Amino acid sequence: MKAYRIWDKYDSEKGQKIVFGNTVREVKRDNFCCDMFEDVEWTAFMVKREPAFDDMENLPPAEFAYERALEGWRYFDYYVSEPCTDECTKEEYIEWYKKTFEEEV
Question: Taxonomically, which superkingdom (predicted)?
């Protein structure tokens, strides 16, 4: 499935999210008013293709986070500093992700 980046063009503090769909219209319809963007106006809800993430919708969350990190995506709103993918292995990154966002490994 095609990957898309969604965000609120007037409020960068909300962050951005990668979602999957077949068309921009489908992505906009299915994600408008979702948890992150519940108060966003339709005209401010932005969608852009992110082909680097195509066909990754079934990856486990930790592996998808690693793939995003390889493309430069970072978690800016968490107190734990994210490991740099240039300085750690995939396994180390996934272990960090699980300790930070999931149950203890």
Answer: Bacteria
Both structure tokens of 104:
């203890």
Q: How far apart are CA 80 and CA 33, in angstroms?
A: 29
Element (H, E) at 31: helix 24-31
Q: Kindly state the tokens that stand for 19.
A: 């979602």
What's the pTM value of the predicted model, to 2 decimals? Answer: 0.81
* pLDDT of amino acid 75: 77
Q: Where are the domains of the chain?
A: 2-53, 61-101
**Six-digit token pair at 7?**
């965000």
CA distance 26 to 97: 30
